[in-house]
Each structure stands twice: as structure tokens, then as C-alpha cells.
Design goal:
This protein is α/β, with parallel strands linked by helices. The protein has 3 domains: 214 residues, FAD/NAD(P)-binding domain, CATH 3.50.50; 112 residues, FAD/NAD(P)-binding domain, CATH 3.50.50; 120 residues, Enolase-like, domain 1 (2-Layer Sandwich). Helix content is 31%, strand content 22%. Strands 1, 2, 3, 4, 5, 6 and 15 form a 7-stranded mixed β-sheet that branches. The chain has a 5-stranded parallel β-sheet with strand order 7-14-8-9-10, covered by helices on one side. α2 packs parallel to α8 and α4 packs antiparallel against α5. The longest helix is centred in the first third of the chain and has 24 residues.
């Protein structure tokens, strides 16, 4: 329930739109609202830069490319290049990660300097009524609309929460002075997969544990099996296991059971068990908005509005698509609608598009197939350009409408899929068919050429489907 006294007390600050959280979504929301002529406040207690720049996309990619560099040198003998003994200076690796990360963080912080005077509020915020916020600096805010853009936090469940500094998350891993000798990674989502393989390729003994058989939330069983095979080349992988942990000496003793049973000692444990929305302490119970079973506001993904209220939500806080470009898009939609409230407009969302920067990378786009979907598969095991580069592994699976062959989605793991995925998302947006994609010129020899066999499978299946429909519709059935 809202606080009637707080709701009736004059507020210290008033604005059209208050945004809680100055990450990617919050910054985009504040800009969009201001463009609509709204007066704004942007509230954050840390002003640390975006999750992507500080503890997510950028530092993880810096670690990944270091691992890829070491891996490439180790494989140079395949091409007749002898390099001798190769070592990894773990302290130098981590120093570069932090140095470059700080460069990216500084760039994001420059955006803070462009905010109009009085917009930035250095505090935490909690609701005391749907249109009222209490700030930790003692000030109160009355806002016509409020946008929740508080982001997410790394979950550290039992028993890992009792491991102290031996339990790392993506928010602490990059502060290590050097590389650990051994590392257990808990969780097989994108963060776990990327960092596990990167560490393994830098010479760390890595064991990756998954509570179920999932890998990066892949729904395509064939692509998932291929990714499993690829990852197993670099690290030890246990799926469908329960893991127990305890401090032992200067490290950690893990034991696991389920599909496999065993125990082992590790210097550190990286907990990558997910990033729930950062909503605790927001006072959502005072707003009257509907919450789901996890305490997350129920909202319309096309307007980002919570019910019919003046409260909107965007970015990782809504626990829908935890991806930077989605957070930016959601912030812009929420900011526009919050500024124009009570008039809100639905905005069509782009097709789902996610990447996992393993090597080779994983790309998932569009919708998973249903029982009627046409499916085409391209193998990269003997693809020309991939073989030239000695990266010939992976598969791409395409999904299309029956009859038309219109592309509806894809799941892929293989060389260049982070770039090829962009091509296919554009094809989805423009409603391309497998046939129309095959009409596009494919330069030789490129990785893109590898798509052709799977697209041809869809064309053949679409042709057979149409012929079957015609046959069934004929009087004789022949």
C-alpha cells in the first residue's frame, strides 16, 4: 500500500519523467523522454557506467580475444608455422583487460556530462506511491511517470554464497591480479560459456557445470550437440549435475552428482547462475501494479507500460531480453511513452537476435521451429573457406514457413556466425525466403557460401510441400 502521508506531502523535486537507473536502458529512456519535451530526473547511486562496459560485454570480450590469440599461436603448426614455446603472462592479460575496460567505461561516462543541469540525482530510490519516490539523499520526487531501469545483479545461490572471495562473478572476475590455476564455472548460460572457454584457452584448468542439459538456452538439439562437442575440446563439461561446495584451505572443494559423480579441488569458482532483475527495496508494493511470481512487474513488451499505470520498465530489470541493443530499444520506447502518458503507442520489436561469443560463435535469431516448419541444415565440417582457415566445424539450421519458404528463424554455431547472423536478421526483417536469399550473390570463397546447402534444403522442402498440396487438391489425388 502507498504511504498516504508521503503522497500528500509536498515533494522536494518535481518532473514529468523520473528514471531509476543510469545504465543503457535508463540513459536511452531519459534521452527519449527529454526529446519529447518532458522534464526529467535520472536517479542512480553509483553512476558507474553501463553493465556492458564495466562488467559485461567489453571486459569479457577482452578476455576472450586474449584466449583466442593464445589458441591461434598454439595452432600455428597446422599451417607449417613453428613458433616454439609459448607462455601466457596472466598478470599482463588481466592488466590489459582492466586498462581497456576502463577506457570503455570512461567513454560511457562522458554521456553523463551531457545531461542538463539538475537531471542527475546521486541516490537510490524507492516508491512510496505510484507517482512518488523517496531518495536515499533525503529528497522526495513527484513524477507524472516513472521508468524502472535498475538492471540486474549476479545471483550467487547456496552453497556458493559461503565461499567468500573464492566465489567470483562477472562483477569480480576481472579484478583478479592474474589467472587462476584452476577454475570451476557454475552455469551454462552465455556468460558461463564465454568465460569458461576463454579461461581454458589461456591455460586455466576449467571445469564447467550445468544443472540441466542446456547450453546457452539453445533450443535446437542438433546445434546444442555440436556446441557441446566443440566446448569439450577445451574444457571438462558436466551437465545435469547438482554441485556442492565448501572452502578447503586456500581453495574450494566441489562434489557433484547426477548424470556424473565426482569431486575436485579448484582455486576459484565462477558463479554464472543468472542475473535476476535488481528490484529489491524499490517499494513496488506501494505502486498497485501487478507483479508476477518472481516479483517482477507485469508489463506490455510493445509499450513497456506496467498495466495501465504511469510506471514503465526497461532493460534487464524486466527480465525479458538481457541484451544491450534490446535494453537501448526498450529504454527509447519506455521514455517516449512515459513522456506522452497517458497516451502510449505500441512499437513493433525487432526479431530476437542473440550471440554467444564462444569460438566459434553461436547465433540464434527469430522464432524456434514448430511442428510444421521447414528446416534446412548447413554443415561447416567440410566448408571451403572454413577448411582453408582450419576452422571447419559447426552447423547452421534455418527455419521457414511451409509452402512459402519464408525464413522465420535460425540457430547456428560455426565460424563467422556473429557476422552471418546480422545478414539473416536483415533477411527476417525484410521477409526474405530461402529462394530469394539464394538469388543473392555469394562471393567465393567465403563463409557465407556455406549457407547455400541449408537454404536449398528449404527450397526443396517448400517445393515438395506445394506439390503435395496440389496433389491432395486434385480430384484423382494423383
Amino acid at each position: 500500500m502507498s504511504d498516504p502521508v508521503a503522497a500528500s506531502t509536498p515533494a522536494d523535486l518535481q518532473c514529468d519523467v523520473a528514471v531509476i537507473g543510469a545504465g543503457t536502458a535508463g540513459l536511452a529512456a531519459e534521452r527519449a523522454a527529454r526529446r519529447q519535451g518532458a522534464s526529467t530526473l535520472l536517479i542512480d547511486d553509483r553512476w558507474a557506467g553501463t553493465t556492458c562496459a564495466s562488467v559485461g560485454c567489453m571486459p569479457s570480450k577482452l578476455l576472450i580475444v586474449a584466449g583466442e590469440a593464445h589458441h591461434a599461436v598454439q595452432r600455428a603448426g597446422l599451417f607449417g608455422i613453428e613458433v616454439g614455446n609459448v607462455g601466457v603472462d596472466g598478470a599482463a592479460v588481466m592488466a590489459r583487460v582492466r586498462r581497456e575496460r576502463d577506457h570503455f567505461v570512461a567513454a560511457t561516462k562522458q554521456g553523463f556530462e551531457k545531461l542538463p543541469e539538475g537531471v542527475a540525482q546521486h541516490a537510490t530510490a524507492r516508491f512510496v506511491a505510484p507517482d512518488r519516490l523517496q531518495l536515499s539523499n533525503g529528497k522526495t520526487v513527484k513524477a507524472r511517470s516513472v521508468i524502472i531501469a535498475t538492471g540486474s545483479y549476479p545471483l550467487v545461490p547456496e552453497p556458493f554464497d559461503a565461499l567468500g572471495d573464492r566465489a567470483l562473478t562477472n562483477e569480480t572476475l576481472f579484478e583478479l591480479a592474474g589467472l587462476p590455476r584452476s577454475l570451476a564455472v557454475i552455469g551454462t548460460g552465455p556468460v558461463g560459456l564465454e568465460l569458461a572457454q576463454a579461461m581454458a584457452r589461456l591455460g586455466v584448468a576449467v571445469t564447467l557445470f550445468g544443472q540441466d542439459d542446456g547450453l546457452g538456452a539453445l533450443k535446437d538439439a542438433e546445434v546444442k550437440a555440436e556446441l557441446h562437442r566443440i566446448l569439450a575440446q577445451d574444457l571438462t563439461l558436466y551437465l545435469n549435475v547438482e554441485v556442492d561446495a565448501r572452502r578447503e584451505g586456500a581453495g574450494v572443494r566441489l562434489s557433484w552428482s547426477g548424470a556424473a559423480t565426482g569431486e575436485g579441488d579448484f582455486e576459484y569458482v565462477l558463479v554464472a547462475a543468472g542475473r535476476p532483475p535488481r528490484l529489491k527495496g524499490l517499494g513496488l508494493e506501494t505502486t498497485g501494479i501487478e507483479l508476477d511470481d518472481h516479483g517482477t512487474p507485469v508489463y506490455d513488451p510493445k509499450t513497456l507500460q506496467c498495466g495501465s499505470s504511469s510506471i514503465f520498465i526497461a532493460g534487464d530489470a524486466d527480465h525479458d531480453r538481457p541484451i544491450l541493443h534490446e535494453a537501448s530499444d526498450e529504454g527509447a520506447i519506455a521514455g517516449h511513452n512515459a513522456a506522452c502518458y497517458p497516451e502510449v503507442r505500441p512499437t513493433p520489436r525487432s526479431p530476437l537476435f542473440s550471440l554467444i561469443f564462444t569460438d566459434p560463435p553461436v547465433a540464434v535469431l527469430g522464432s524456434p521451429p514448430d511442428e510444421d516448419s521447414l528446416i534446412g541444415t548447413s554443415s561447416y565440417h567440410d566448408q571451403g573457406r572454413a577448411r582453408v582457415e582450419a576452422r571447419n566445424q559447426g552447423i547452421a539450421r534455418f527455419y521457414a514457413e511451409p509452402g512459402t519458404g519464408k525464413l522465420t528463424g535460425a540457430a547456428m554455431v560455426g565460424p563467422g556466425m556473429d557476422h552471418i547472423g546480422h545478414l539473416l536478421v536483415l533477411a527476417l526483417i525484410h521477409g526474405e525466403t530461402a529462394s530469394s536469399l539464394l538469388d543473392m550473390p555469394f562471393y567465393h570463397p567465403t563463409l557465407e557460401e556455406g549457407l547455400k546447402s541449408g537454404l536449398r534444403e528449404i527450397c526443396q522442402a517448400a517445393h515438395s510441400s506445394l506439390r503435395g498440396d496440389r496433389d491432395q487438391g486434385s480430384p484423382s489425388g494423383a
